[in-house]
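Exercise 7. Given the components listed, write out the predicted structure of the assembled complex. Treat all entries as one system.
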Amino acid sequence: MHQHIIIEPFKIKTVEPITMSTEKQRLEWLRKAHYNPFLLTSDQVIIDLLTDSGTSAMSTAQWSAMMSGDESYAGARSWKKLEHVIHDLTGYPHILPTHQGRAAERILYSLLGGKGKVFISNTHFDTTRANIEFSGAKAIDCPIEQALHPSVRHPFKGNMDISRLEKLIREHGAKNVGAVIMTVTNNTGGGQPVSMENMKAVSALCKENKILFVIDACRIAENAYFVNHRETGFEGKSYKEIAQEMFSLADGCVMSAKKDGLVNIGGFLALRDNELSDACTNLLIITEGFTTYGGLAGRDMEAIAVGLEEVFDRDYLRYRIRSTEYLGEKIQEYGIPIMLPIGGHAVYVDAKGLYKHIPVEQYPGQALVCALYRIGGVRCVEVGSVMFGTYDERGTLIPAPMELVRLAIPRRVYTQSHVDYVVEVFQEIAAHARETKGMRITHEPKFLRHFTAHFEPVP
Ligand SMILES: *Cc1c(COP(=O)(O)O)cnc(C)c1O
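Answer.
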């Protein structure tokens, strides 16, 4: 049979009820939450696309492995199993478990960082940047030019700009570069992939200049899928083999298992260098826990060990990437402008393009986030001037370069009919785009205002 539809490659054994609601109820809840969906409770949400982090559904194999979790303080069986899986995947000899990705980042970058140091990445994820800057060092983003233009198509929009990287190394001096960090996939822009060719070029440049090369491997399996399908010479390789080849090009990695580990909590740091690993181990024991659990329960390590293998499954990855692409394609059919090409874990809507009548000072992204919730109970996050805007000395808004709204897709959680429902909500959004009103801020904290700011619609 010639098969068109890519079905969810799993059956559902345990179900979590969704609390349904009416538009009238949601309008009231939204008002009480000061038009900020971060302040809603999860029971008030029908489809939650706030993040793909820690929101995965676990498999029967993961749940049953959890029952055999060994909770010993030292030398737990569960640790040995996890260490074996990570070693097999990455090839790195030293593996340090942590409770999530940012703990691995804090340990590594507080040791490598400090005043006078610079870090260069295709794009630093926000916790990566925060940990680097907290150490006193500087974080420089170095993506290819195409990455900055939402409508420009490029198969590997997550790539690093090699000639600019070379220039930056010369400018700052190789000995002042704490590390070069490749984020795969690049979270910014919804998970744009990095090619093996680009990884090789960065790796060679780092070797030549004796600079540490680190992979931020949160979505390494999704990246491997894109390399297999878009880069010549990789069609015949398995997704895991592609990931292993990528790891072989670097000196170590940090990973939040809350993404491609298919678990709700966990992470790790893995390194080649003995000395650096010793220093990191000291910090791990002081702040996270002993080397054989690092802040994780034995059962959590069991779940990660299984998740890191399941994530490379052919049918899973095909369904995963296709379901993200499906949402993007469908809403485009209703004239909703999105970032292209569609990435691995999220669809980014261009709210400025959708609501041309709403000035950036009235936060078109926040207006869309509120409309999606009001119309359909869909929760997502603004990635625009609410998140990244600042003020000049006169208090005038300096807007972000783009006004985006991120629809992040949790792994193995929603079915196609859930996605079709979100598409219907967008149909309604498109039909009423012209009447949608802008928002203004009524209360805001000094830092990370998007989490707790209050808003109201502009009359
Ligand atoms: C989520 C994420 C992190 C941080 O991991 P946490 O588990 O949330 O601490 C770091 N880098 C990237 C690219 C991420 O997506």
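Discussion: The chain is about 40% helix and 15% strand. Residues 53, 100-102, 125, 127-128, 183, 187, 216, 218, 256, 258-259, 267 surround pyridoxal-5'-phosphate (CB under 6 Å).
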